[in-house]
Amino acid sequence: MRTIDTFRMDKEEFSVLSSFEEADAADKAYWHAKSPQERMEALELMRQINYGYDPTTERLQRVLEIAEFTPS
Q1: DSSP state of 72
Q2: Which whole-number Å values give the CA distances from 57 to 6, 26, 47, 53, in the listed order?
Q3: How many domains does the chain have?
């Protein structure tokens, strides 16, 4: 299941701050309160939003190259 499909925005959690310094402090406090698992889930959500997600086409391509050995 894709992370982006299970995401729900909490519209009740909203704050207005008066400076960028306050916003930075609030961001740090918010993320420090989250568990490592929640941080990784947020990171994966942002990755899927930016780069998309399609498990059938996003596999690594296998490349085989044959090189002949010539002893010196």
Answers
A1: -
A2: 21, 39, 16, 9
A3: 1
Q: Find tokens 């010196």 and name the residue.
A: 72
Exposure letters 50-64 (e unless 16+ CB within 10 A, then b):
eeeeeeeeeeeeeee
CA angle 37, 52, 56 (to 5 degrees): 95
Location of structure tokens 């982006």: 4
What would the two tokens of residue 17 be? Answer: 């701050």
Q: Is residue 67 pLDDT above 70, yes or no? A: yes
- Candidates 37, 45, 54; CA nearest to 8 is 45
* Tokens encoding 61: 């391509």
Supply the range of the domain harboring residue 63.
1-72
Best CA proximity match to 44, nearest among 33, 34, 52 = 52
List, for residues 31-44, the tens digit of each pLDDT value. Answer: 999 999 999 988 98
